[in-house]
From TrEMBL:
<keyword id="KW-0472">Membrane</keyword>
<dbReference type="InterPro" id="IPR045252">
    <property type="entry name" value="LPCAT1-like"/>
</dbReference>
<dbReference type="GO" id="GO:0008654">
    <property type="term" value="P:phospholipid biosynthetic process"/>
</dbReference>
<dbReference type="GO" id="GO:0005783">
    <property type="term" value="C:endoplasmic reticulum"/>
</dbReference>
<dbReference type="GO" id="GO:0004366">
    <property type="term" value="F:glycerol-3-phosphate O-acyltransferase activity"/>
</dbReference>
<keyword id="KW-0443">Lipid metabolism</keyword>
<keyword id="KW-1208">Phospholipid metabolism</keyword>
<keyword id="KW-0812">Transmembrane</keyword>
<protein>
    <recommendedName>
        <fullName>Glycerol-3-phosphate acyltransferase 4</fullName>
    </recommendedName>
</protein>
<keyword id="KW-0012">Acyltransferase</keyword>
<keyword id="KW-1133">Transmembrane helix</keyword>
<keyword id="KW-0444">Lipid biosynthesis</keyword>
<keyword id="KW-0808">Transferase</keyword>
<keyword id="KW-0594">Phospholipid biosynthesis</keyword>
<dbReference type="GO" id="GO:0019432">
    <property type="term" value="P:triglyceride biosynthetic process"/>
</dbReference>
Amino acid sequence: MFKKGSFEIGGTVYPVAIKYDPRFGDAFWNSSKFGMVSYLLRMMSSWAIVCSVWYLPPMSREEDEDAVQFANRVKAAIARQGGLVDLLW
């Protein structure tokens, strides 16, 4: 979820999509499943933390859209590129 203030100033946004691959080690901590020490040991002993990074084309706010619509458009582009579900917050 984005904070809309970043999208209100009228600048150009350079979106980046990052998707972690859990094959060699999971980068996310599930605190209900693992304690912090256990998680840190798993992270430090994993073979690698692999992720895919996509640099998307620059996006600017269109004349007829507000900051929330612009943020949602950027979020949808990132989700589409990363193969993720574009959820409404």
